[in-house]
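ingest -> validate -> predict -> emit
validate: passed (alphabet ok, no gaps, 353 aa)
predict: started
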Amino acid sequence: MSSLLANATGHEVPLSFLLLPSLTNTYGALLISTFLALALYGLTVNQTYRYYRLFGNSDITFHRLLVPAILVTDTFHSATIIHTCYHYLVENYFNPSALLVASWSIQFMPLSTGLVVLLCQSFYTRRIFLIDRRFRWIVAIIVVMMLAELGIFIGTTVSAFKVTTFEEFALAYMWLNSACFGAATIIDLVLMIVFLVVLRSSKTAFRSTKKGLDSLAVYAVIATLMITALTLPAMISTIVSKGTFVYLALAIPTTKIYTNGVLAFLNVRPDLAENSVPLRTMTSGVSTIKRTFGGSDGTGTSRSGEVSSAPVVDFRMLSASRDDSASGTDDGMGPDGPSAKTPAGVMGQHMVV
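emit:
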């Protein structure tokens, strides 16, 4: 069959021009999604910078490894979407037939997305395990689901490299994309429900600590609802709009929301501690501290040598432990954290009330 067809003027045009998809719901949707995703990536970089300014090397090992891992994988994801737009809309702007062939960057996109999603979901899963060990069996189920989710993402990436055109992938492997979004949606919903139940059922003798836990519960629900509000439509679009990139347009910014949700969760801890868990100095059983006037040398005595007996609440935070304790005291936000238990050796220093 000839690859050329005659148009109305009698001139022959390539057959590939007649097979090109609409740019509005394919590369147009991908381009707009990339703009939004890169704006969110800038927020990710800012959140990472803020994390290191707040904690430096004082945070627990898990968090100090998780944050750079999230940044690296999210950067790789951003690189794939940038290259995708450049490859199709700039490098091959006068080669329409290239729009039908998958590039390496778009073939790697399922893997780059999956790595970010797994890292962020592991953070929330670990929080549930540390806060309430009664939900260990639910955590075990979530971990199994996450491993299955990782396998689906890897399988989708491998399948993408087996085909050449988007049409071939849509006919043979589009169900894998549906499975990816379906698995992510189910895990996020389970995390949202369990996280809310665990935090709201936490028992604590301190009203201020309960207020802080409620704040975290509300934050977790909002974060997971925002993610689910995008992953669920993305899964539906893989079924009803197979010949478009609508599912990619929804999935790309969702990946950035995952990363920003975790980083914001980490960075908000000092604010919650200051607003909800005040600290008080106790020395030899005396539960008041001395307010100093005219400056202080850090010992409770002013530079002029005068001491005031006016009590004041000190809101400085205890330094974070460097050890990843299995008792939930590693980050101070669980029921067994510093709000419920004071580490040995702090008498005469700041203690949580």
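The longest strand covers residues 4-6.
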